[in-house]
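Are you able to produce any protein sequence you like plus the matching backbone structure tokens because I've never seen that pairing?
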Amino acid sequence: MESAKTLNDLPSAETVNLARESATALSRLLREHPEIDRAQIRLDHEDLILPRAALDLLRKLLAEMAQGNAVTIVPVHAELTTQEAADMLNVSRPYLVKLLTEEQIPYTMVGSHRRVRLKDLLAFKQKQEERSRQAMEELSEQAQDLDMGY
């Protein structure tokens, strides 16, 4: 997919440490200056102005790198292949296709191929996570009611 940039290789230990320091500093600055809607940075003797939304995104990106994670950036309007969508949900492609045919996730056809909008996939994932959270709360309540020591 051309609209996504993947840093497939896990960051080196040096990169993780640098990302951790940068994420911490950027988080502190954003917290201390909530009114700031842009920032000026200097790169190779050139000044750049970044909007607040880009700074928030950069902070999240650095936080992920600081945890040693590879990172993918995908525009929310992007359309994913069934394999890309399955990978994001951490399920098999056949299972994802089953979800699509059961109309649990909207999709479009491009020729003979299904495409899933990232926005729809994220909405489905959020709904599933909410269901899981509710189920866990119910189990926890049952365990307390039964005095199971949890």
